[in-house]
Amino acid sequence: MYKFEPLLKQLIWGSESWELSGVKDNETIVAEGPYKGRSLNELVSKEKERLLGKENYQRFGDEFPLLIKFIDAHQNLSIQVHPDDETARRLGKPRGKNEMWYCLESAPGARLYNGLKKKITPEEYREMVENDTITEALACYEVHEGDVFFIPAGRIHAIGAGCFLTEIQQTSDVTFRIYDYKRKDKNGNYRELHTKEAAESIDFTVLPNYRAGYEPHKDEGVQLVECPYFTTAVYDLTEPMTLDYSDLDSFVVLIAVNGQGTLTADGEAVTFQKGDTILLPATTEEVKVEGTVRFLETYV
Questions:
Q1: How far is 167 from 72, CA to CA, in rounded Å?
Q2: Radius of gyration for the chain, computed over Cα atoms and rounded to the nearest angstrom
Q3: What is the pLDDT of residues 210-241, one digit of tens each?
Q4: Fewer CB near the terminus (10 Å): N or C of the chain?
C-alpha cells in the first residue's frame, strides 16, 4: 500500500489537492516506506506490471493512468470542455480526458453545470459565448453530498462556487476554456479562451439527465461509473469487510470521503480516514477494511 504527499494548488477560483498524479512536472511523491521520496511515475517504472497490472502496463507504460483530486471551489470555475483522444491528438495534445465527480459536503445551494439542456448548433454556441449567454444552454444542478456526475470527453461542464468534490480522471491536463465570466488574472488580463478548439471537441448531444443514478447501500460496493478509462464504486461500511482483488489485473485506488478505519493487506495495516488516498498495487489479492468509513474504489 502506498500513500503520497498531495500537491496543493491555489488557483484564481479556489484550491485543488492533487492526491495521486503522474502528470509531468506535477507528480505526487511517495510519503513513506522503501520508495519514500520517489515520484509516482518512478514507482511505476520500478514496479511496472506488479503495480499497474499486466494489461495496464502494456497500455500505459511508465505513466500512471489516473489523476485523483479534491477540488474546493470558492468561485465559479470556467465553462470548459475536454477533447476525446482522437480530437486531442489532432490538435497536438497527447490524449483527451474523461472524468467523474463525487460530490462531498458543499455549501448550501452550491451548483454545477454538466451537459447541454437544449439543442444548439456550433454557430449558436459561438454566438452565445460572444454575447455572454452560454450558461443559458447548460444543464444546472444543485449538488448534495453523494451526488455523482460522469463527464465524458466532449461534454461541456463547470464546477460552481461552493462545490467541494473528488475528481477522478485520465492522466491529462488538457482543458479548453469556453467562457470565464470576463474574469481577469492577477496581472489584470483576461484568461485565454479556446473557442475554436472547444468547438471541435464539444458533443452537442442533449440528454434528459446528467446526474449518475445509483442506489446507496450500506456494507456493500455500489458501482457508480464504468468506462474504458476507469471503473469506480462506493462503499459505505459500518462493519468489517474483506475486498477480494485476486482476479483483478489492475492497481486499485481507495479514496476515503467520510469516517475513518484501518486497511490491512499483505501483513501491513494503515489508518484510513476522510481525505486519505491509498494506492494498492496489482499484486494485492485482498484488503480487510475495518471501521466506519465511506470510500471510493477505482481501477482501470
A1: 11
A2: 19
A3: 999 999 999 999 999 999 999 999 999 999 99
A4: N
At 271, the amino acid letter reads: T
Chain centroid offset of residue 163 CA: 14
Q: Which residue in 135, 283, 144 sits closest to 211, CA to CA?
A: 144
Q: Are 288 and 242 in contact (CB under 8 A)?
A: yes
Please report which confidence band the pLDDT of residue 189 belongs to, taking 50, 70 and 90 as the band edges: confident
> What per-residue confidence (pLDDT) applies to 53?
97
Instruction: At 234, give phi and psi (nearest 5°).
Output: -120, 140
Q: Is the pLDDT of residue 92 over 90?
A: no
Fold classification of 4-201 is: Jelly Rolls (2.60.120)
**Mean pLDDT score of the chain:** 95
For domain 222-299, the CATH superfamily is Jelly Rolls (2.60.120.10)
> How is 166-207 classified by DSSP, letter by letter?
EEEEES----EEEE-TT-B-TTSPBPPP-HHHHHHH----B-
